[in-house]
Design brief:
The protein has about 220 residues and is an alpha/beta fold. The chain is built from 7 helices and 10 strands. The longest helix is centred in the C-terminal third of the chain and has 18 residues. The radius of gyration is 17 Å and the shape is globular.
Length: about 220
């Protein structure tokens, strides 16, 4: 089953001059697939991820996610869709430093309002234990290590049970040991939970261990 279907995507930036950053991009990603997006700086990989994430809607072509064509939906509809279907992990964790680890993980679910606070708290604790963060729940986010903060960010991305997790250089700030830990977490989520993972990465070893590499050069798909 297809998780994402991309058809003939073209994307321009117009400031300061007209520059075409993505050229006729088409591909599919299957449910439960772990995919790396690679390419040199300026190749368009992060731009592509932001289109897939529905946060940038200024393009031609079409994108379908989980059978829903997201191209053309309103900003409110897209925000609701993102909250339910997509989890994000960025290079920087973007945790709220004065909030506890547990509060940071619970926030997206409290915002979605599909479950009560006790249920959300229980699920957040379960995720933190899954990511080997037992005992860190009530510490402030600013008081744990960088590798732990990134794992908290992954737990936060999972709290609404998204079918797709998108990462923009999710291991970019981590040492090799933590890169391995994060990779194994993603691998397990794809295998055990059938979640689709799409990660932009400069790390060749990380990419080589994914199910597939989507490679861009000068805005075009080259593999």
């Amino acid at each position: 089953m297809k998780a994402i279907s991309v058809s003939t995507i073209n994307k321009h930036f117009y400031d300061p001059v007209d520059f075409q950053v993505l050229k006729d991009i088409s591909f599919d990603v299957n449910k439960g697939e772990f995919v790396a997006i690679q390419g040199k700086s300026g190749s368009g990989k992060s731009t592509l991820l932001y289109l897939l994430s529905t946060m940038d809607t200024n393009y031609s072509g079409s994108i379908s996610i989980n059978g829903t064509q997201v191209t053309g939906l309103s900003q409110n509809e897209l925000a609701k869709f993102r909250n339910e279907h997509i989890g994000f992990v960025f290079q920087f964790h973007y945790l709220l430093p004065e909030f506890t680890v547990l509060d940071n993980v619970m926030l997206p679910a409290l915002k979605l309002k599909k479950k009560n606070k006790d249920e959300i708290e229980g699920e957040a604790i379960e995720l933190l234990h899954l990511l080997d963060l037992k005992g860190q729940e009530h510490k402030k986010a600013s008081k744990i290590s960088g590798g732990q903060q990134q794992r908290v960010a992954i737990a936060r991305s999972l709290i609404n049970s998204p079918s797709i997790i998108m990462g923009d250089e999710p291991t970019g700030n981590l040492d090799s040991k933590n890169v391995e830990i994060v990779f194994e977490i993603f691998r397990e989520l794809a295998r055990e939970r059938n979640q689709t993972i799409i990660a932009v990465t400069h790390d060749d070893e990380f990419a080589a261990n994914c199910d597939r590499i989507i490679e861009l050069s000068d805005g075009r798909l080259i593999r």
